[in-house]
């Protein structure tokens, strides 16, 4: 601003200087011309009087003059000229000033010479004897005058311009200093021009408004940062080119990237999976997208949505949800439905076939009890399967609430052994209890179902004459109470140990074809233990037996 003020003032001073110089020169030139004409008229009067009194000899006696004197006879012949040879001069009766003098007594004229670059002023007086006395002088033109004065004018102009520049600089600094010294943060405390007071008041009000808005914006940004930082889902915001504008902690941990360094990078640098590329590409085209992929052994869902402004895509919002449990649950539910339909089909087919044979009258009276027994066994198997399915479903329902109580594991084990004693006696299996006196807080019915399945499995898979041991161990420095069931049965191959708790999974049926079961026993055990916060551990060796332990923390 200082430069603009300086050059503006300098230009004004220069323009004024040129204008004043021109006007003053014009006025002085006009004044000099008038003064010169008056002087010529006076000199002509004096010379005419001298000629009247003394004749033409008066002119010859005059000293050398700066002005030219010319005496013209009545016939126009030049009788005297102090600067030229009269013989070389022509007739002057046609001269403008001569003609006017003969007519009025006095004549004036001005003639400009382009060759000399000057003009000549003439004044003629008519004498009593009819002769005309003319006085003339040469006056320089304005340009000629300026040409002779160019050097002093340049010096004066340089001095004046330097002084004008210095004054303009000082004045510009003085004008702009109060403006430059304005504190925009605290304009109300500034001392400046009175005319700027309304502007300063507006700036102060605007500063307070901006400060309030910035505080509100910072508060909202902090709230958003806290919300996104504690989100269980990943959140990434990008611009229209796919560069990351914001990324929360969960997303940065998932992509193994630094939150700060991720900003400004392309989101595809964080993860190059087909699911993410497809979702982001669709969102940048203005369409929402939903894709899933596996990362580090877990299942994630990408939900990408475009950010639209006036119909144009200005960015995307990517929400990353861990759907591993849901995915596994859906997978298990699908497998469970498939297995249930398969397991139910077997007893139902047997029931249907037996009933069809009997209804067709193809069974001899002596065979009716046999077929009736078959129907009874298959129906019992079906009932047991349905009960196990209901139990598994009940344990899967995490929202179900059961009344908890202190359960003595030794008493519980004794009750279960007594309940299954007939089955053990039928195979000549000895069932022993080692009670270490321990109790846990839990749901007695679920714990009883869990232990019943363990003991029942041990009896089923132990050959006749074998042994089953139920051991209850009190809490120790190494952990909480432990309930274990050991047998001397056929054992489980090492390759199947990790799968025996899956629903409907059975070890090689050729090794246990005489054992009836639903395939849900150990699955119920696993769910019941998990419901109580306990872990299940299994140890087995083929032909040497199996030990299943439930360990509380």
What does this structure look like?
It contains 15 helices and 17 strands. Helix 10 packs antiparallel against helix 11. The strands form four sheets. It has a five-stranded antiparallel β-sheet. The protein has a five-stranded antiparallel β-sheet with strand order 7-6-10-9-8, with helices on both faces. A five-stranded mixed β-sheet has the order 12-14-15-17-16. It folds into five domains: 2-148, PAS domain (Beta-Lactamase), CATH 3.30.450.20; 185-222; 231-322, PAS domain (Beta-Lactamase), CATH 3.30.450; 327-396, Helix Hairpins; 405-551, Heat Shock Protein 90 (2-Layer Sandwich), CATH 3.30.565. The two termini are 79 Å apart. The protein is rod-shaped, with a radius of gyration of 63 Å. The protein is 49% helix and 21% strand. The model is unreliable at 509-516 (pLDDT under 50). It is an alpha+beta fold and 553 residues long.
